[in-house]
Write a structure and sequence with these properties.
Two copies of one chain form a homodimer.
Chain A: H1 3-14, E1 18-22, H2 26-29, H3 35-39, H4 45-63, E2 66-69, H5 71-75, H6 78-94, E3 100-105, H7 109-120, E4 130-133, H8 143-152, E5 155-161, H9 168-171, H10 182-194, E6 206-210, H11 215-224, E7 230-232, E8 256-260, H12 262-265, H13 277-299
Parallel strand pairs in A: 1-2, 1-8, 3-4, 4-5, 5-6, 6-7, 7-8
Helix pairs in contact in A: 4-6, 4-13, 7-8
């Protein structure tokens, strides 16, 4: 099945445009001062990491259109972290939750093909429904990813305009050739890359990452990226609001998915006391449910009266 | 010890500017049609991979200033590949060979810090002497890498002008603000990023990747990147020659290191027959020795007559 159709279907089925980011910060999960670790006494860091992923996947079953594990945090925990990442990808996929592997890979030619094999080949330990990729090396370097993704029924999300404070330094540069900004040129390359593989829903398998923290750029890029799903990070802990992301959606409420990581993953840290296993699950679930509703409120067409 | 000083010292000590890339292509190493696999009957893919790394590290001891494992190929072999990568990094470092981890990572804020922890923290399973990083997300996203590298005595190589045919699509764009190309702006950010941490040798711990396949850009960037070591890929199988990379070096023969991967790693494939273990080692060693000499010929100042 085509990636965009799979995503589109999932969004309708559970009525959610929320992506739950799986961002295991070691300093928040492990150690004596961690409320998470205190709720699971005698758990090793590995078992804590497995439990953290399991809670988020369980939450996503009812509240999210996808989960997005962030490779960096798993890699920072070495071989153990990467083994848990592999298990986490499989666990989510087994439950039918689309997995967006946030690894921001990018390299040239045959090396790009090797990364594609790692994340977009169904036989790989790291197979995912979609992968984030970095465009700096040029559109030719994205082609091996796009081919592998199309073959596997997976998707890509290409970095276009990122959510960090300094994303403008290179991405916002105005180009002499066209008077357009670099991110617009990258966006056009994204459209081209997916043009030959449009799903029934009208979107290609090549999406784009556009940050919630830049609402006017998000609105402009929604137009340029006419056949791409947008993956919108920066909502929640980074400061983007549901109001900020409203222009990411098409009038029919489709076309974008919005990621929240820390505001959901660590929702229990806001509790004053009594942070036990149940309280952790409940706080995470409630935060996800609230994000789901907030996003639906801005995304879905107002019913006519 | 400062990364640039460590590299500088190694270059002098073994008189080599060659970096041996460790690029294990599964289709060339495994399977019945692989001459490598046929030379090691009864070896599992894992053992073949370990042996391949060991031969290249042994070769590098005498011929190369550094080795550069390419993360993509190891990741494409799943958990097994990554475990071998970790062992390979340790084996090279134990022999005193600087390891440049070619992972081209890049992400924002605390996620960048997590990648830095994975590759630039001495306690990590993936600790390396240097890491390649991607600048698209902005200079602010490179700072966590630069800080972690400085602390560990490691280095960075930031992608500036890559060696692939399509690298110009974004990197060569002329910017309205300055009339300069994007890669020049990125190069200036690289200089700034390392400015506060210059080693005794006069170079900072933040280097730049500039492809051998673009000799005139390489010459221009050598000037802009006044305090950076250049890591030059694209020599050998990608078509760059020793003549093409001559401008990467300073008049004193320092300032650049040149990577060759496939032309060394698979040198034995050019043999007509008799590809046994010894022939493989010899072909790889001879190819590395030849590359070392060719690079020295263009890099080192001609002795005055």
């Amino acid at each position: 099945m085509h990636f965009a159709d799979k995503l589109h279907e999932r969004i309708s089925k559970i009525d959610s445009r929320l992506v739950i980011g799986i961002d295991p910060y070691p300093e928040r999960l492990f150690g004596e001062s961690s409320p998470f670790a205190r709720a699971y006494p005698h758990f090793t860091p590995e078992k804590l990491l497995i439990e953290f992923c399991a809670i988020l996947i369980e939450t996503a079953e009812e509240t999210a259109c996808a989960v997005k594990p962030q490779a960096a945090f798993f890699e920072s925990m070495g071989l153990t972290g990467i083994a848990v990442l592999s298990a986490c990808l499989k666990a989510a996929r087994t439950k039918g939750i689309p997995v967006i592997m946030d690894a921001k890979r990018g390299d040239i030619g045959s090396t790009a093909a090797a990364y594609a094999k790692a994340f977009l080949d169904p036989d790989s330990d790291f197979f995912a429904d979609a992968l984030t990729v970095n465009p700096y090396l040029g559109p030719d370097t994205l082609e091996p990813f796009a081919r592998a993704a199309a073959k596997a029924g997976s998707g890509l999300f290409v970095l276009v305009k990122t959510s960090n404070p300094g994303s403008g330094a290179f991405q916002d540069q105005i180009l002499e050739e066209s008077g357009e900004r670099l991110y617009t040129k990258v966006a056009r390359a994204v459209t081209d890359l997916g043009a030959a593989n449009i799903g029934r829903c009208g979107y290609s398998h090549v999406g784009a990452v556009v940050g919630a923290t830049y609402p006017s750029e998000l609105k402009a890029l929604r137009e340029v990226l006419s056949s791409s799903y947008l993956l919108v990070p920066g909502y929640g802990a980074q400061g983007g609001t549901a109001h900020d992301v409203r222009h990411a959606f098409r009038p029919d409420g489709a076309g974008a998915i919005v990621n929240a990581s820390r505001s959901i993953d660590y929702a229990y840290e806001a509790l004053d006391e009594g942070i036990d296993k149940d309280a952790i699950r409940r706080a995470i679930y409630d935060a996800a449910r609230k994000a789901q509703k907030d996003l639906n409120n801005v995304a879905k067409p107002t019913p006519s009266t």
